[in-house]
Design brief:
The structure holds two protein chains of two kinds.
Chain A lengths: L8 E8 L3 H7 L9 E9 L3 E8 L7 H7 L4 E6 L2 E6 L6 E3 L20 E6 L4 E4 L9
Chain B lengths: L11 H16 L12 E6 L5 H12 L3 E6 L12 H8 L5 E6 L4 H8 L4 E6 L5 H15 L6 E5 L6 H13 L3 E5 L8 H9 L5 E4 L2 H4 L5 E4 L10 H7 L7 H4 L7 E3 L20 H22 L4
Parallel strand pairs in B: 1-2, 1-3, 3-4, 5-6, 5-8, 6-7, 8-9
Helix pairs in contact in B: 1-11, 2-11, 3-4, 5-6, 5-11
The chains are: A mainly beta, B alpha/beta.
């Protein structure tokens, strides 16, 4: 299967196979007007299989979201058909309004306009917990 | 300006200092009778409470201060839908310090973020209850002399029991402790407390459903109530509520100096007949709670430059 290369845009590469849809949703890529291609299960020498997302416009990507969902992914900025920048991805210490706390007993469930904040509590096991109720986030 | 939301907001050194102050208050109450003169504590209790609210209020009065109070969310603007943030911001213009209980987990943290005076978490749903832990620690310290080498049995609702989670967190930091976790399968200690606190710190523990078998090894038996308000399903509550009932008969196999504790209120998990046993320490816990709250109020008001 072929997807055209992009001239100006963003390529999120080396996404763990199966995680591209989660990224697509959390990055709100469905709200974009430009062409967006999500390619799943691409053969990869390093990873076996991987997902790729191509966005046909240079937009600001929330790297914290990528760091949370898949810190091993890479983000490449393409201008004039040339790779001009590789963004480094790290697991963020704090996630603000990226995911919602699902604990119905949490204050975030009924406090007006309270931001949903998750803190990285275990880097090794990629565990984020709600700062209010300490409920573990599900990736 | 600092608030106390979780027991881990206090270092071991600070907890030791609070216990020292509390002990001094017990010995020399008159020295503290005017410590908080003309200062106001606001007690905001959006969930039922007898002990904790009265304990905070008694603590402030014994320090020579005054108390303003909301008891029950139905009597405040919370019933009209006011947010915790707005409530905290408003009340902090009236009071020098706030003690708050709220059914939602994390409510005290939200209050602390917006308040201009120190906030003490007096219980946020099933999450944290740091001043109960301070009461528990002072009780153990006074009854046992130190925390070193104790085998602590925690019995009942270890899943939703906030007092248990906080106590484990605190005792773990002192080290030299062994835990016996006694609960029905459905109310076992959550995995994150076991992994993040016990295993991470190499604290030995065993899990069992058998209270009678665990009794002879315990230095402390910390009983908890199965809390109706934490269940979404009444059927589950009814099935589990009477799993453990401590009776004089069960106490026969316990060490002669074992200490029975309970954060109260009890429903029927400790028979009234146990109250006369000299090993029953739960009403001492209540009293110790007041002294630790006095020490904490003093510490926070001093830190905030209000006394």
């Amino acid at each position: 299967m072929n997807v055209d290369s992009i001239t100006n845009g963003v390529v999120i590469d080396h996404i763990t196979a199966g995680k591209s849809m989660r990224l697509y949703k959390l990055l709100h890529l469905g709200d974009l007007d430009c062409p967006v291609a999500m390619i799943k299960n691409v053969n990869s020498r390093r990873m076996g299989k991987k997902d790729i997302i191509k966005i046909d416009a240079v937009i600001d990507i929330d790297l914290d979201v990528i760091g949370y969902v898949d810190p091993l992914a890479t983000v490449n900025i393409i201008r004039g058909g040339v790779l001009v920048e590789k963004k480094s991805i790290e697991m963020p210490e704090l996630l603000v309004d990226v995911i919602k706390c699902k604990n119905p007993r949490c204050i975030t469930s009924n406090e007006q306009e309270l931001k949903h904040v998750f803190k990285l509590t275990d880097r090794e096991n990629k565990v984020y917990r709600c700062v209010y109720c300490e409920t573990k986030a599900g990736i | 300006m600092r608030s106390i939301i979780d027991i881990t907001d206090l270092s071991i050194t600070e907890i030791d200092a609070l216990m020292a102050t509390a002990s001094d208050i017990i010995t020399h109450p008159d020295d503290y009778a005017d410590s908080c003169r003309r200062k106001k504590l606001a007690t905001l209790f959006f969930e039922p409470s007898t002990r904790t609210r009265l304990s905070f209020e008694a603590a402030m009065y014994e320090l020579g201060g005054n108390v303003i109070s909301v008891a029950g969310g139905d009597n405040s603007s919370a019933a009209k839908g006011e947010s915790v943030a707005d409530t905290a911001r408003t009340v902090s213009t009236y009071a020098d310090i706030i003690a708050m209980r709220h059914p939602k987990e994390g409510a005290a943290l939200v209050a602390a973020q917006k308040s201009t005076v120190p906030v003490i978490n007096a219980g946020d749903g099933g999450h944290c209850h740091p001043t109960q832990t301070l009461a528990d620690l002072l009780t153990i310290k006074r009854e046992k002399g130190s925390f070193e080498g104790l085998t602590v049995g925690l019995c009942g609702d270890l899943k939703f029991g906030r007092t248990v989670h906080s106590l484990i967190n605190a005792l773990t930091r002192y080290g030299g402790i062994r835990f016996v976790l006694i609960s029905p399968e459905e109310l076992k200690l959550p995995g994150y407390v076991k992994n993040d606190v016990l295993k991470k710190n190499g604290i030995p523990y065993e899990q069992t459903t058998d209270l009678a078998a665990a009794m002879p090894s315990l230095d402390i038996l910390y009983m908890t109530r199965v809390q109706r308000e934490r269940f979404f399903n009444e059927e589950d509550y009814l099935r589990l509520k009477d799993t453990y009932i401590l009776t004089p008969d069960k106490m026969r196999s316990a060490k002669p100096d074992m200490c029975v504790m309970h954060p109260l209120p009890r429903v029927n998990e400790i028979s009234v007949a146990v109250d006369d046993d000299p090993r029953a320490c739960y009403f001492k816990q209540v009293e110790n709670g007041k002294y630790m709250r006095m020490a904490l109020i003093l510490m926070l008001l001093k830190e905030a430059g209000r006394i």
